[in-house]
Amino acid sequence: MAAITEEPPGISAKLAVVRDAVPAAFRTAKSDDLAEIDARSATLQNTVAATLNQGFLGIFAVSGIVSLAGLVLVLVYPRRVRTAPTSARGEP
User: Fold this and answer.
1) 7-62 pLDDT, tens digit each
2) Residue 51 lies in a domain
3) Number of domains in the chain
4) Residue 29: inside a domain, yes or no?
5) Contacts for 37 with CB less than 8 Å, ≥ 6 apart
6) What domain range includes position 42?
7) Residue 77 DSSP symbol
8) Helices then strands, each counted (H, E), the chain
């Protein structure tokens, strides 16, 4: 395989143009993206709030169900009945 020892004509100039253009393109994209986020901020905030509310509702519902299940278990749990102690000699 033959090694390439010479650059194609004009490649250095083209690479310099691309190298100089990339940072500006990133700055433009960043400012455009931030402007888009600012424009949609109300929608984003509403979506986050709705999602959090659904999560908290789920936690509240599960806590309530577990509490009710515990209450039912306590109600059906057998109670110990204490009897009066008896004397060893048979005396009242």
Assistant:
1) 777 888 888 888 888 888 888 999 999 999 999 999 999 999 999 999 999 999 99
2) yes
3) 1
4) yes
5) 44
6) 21-76
7) S
8) 2, 0
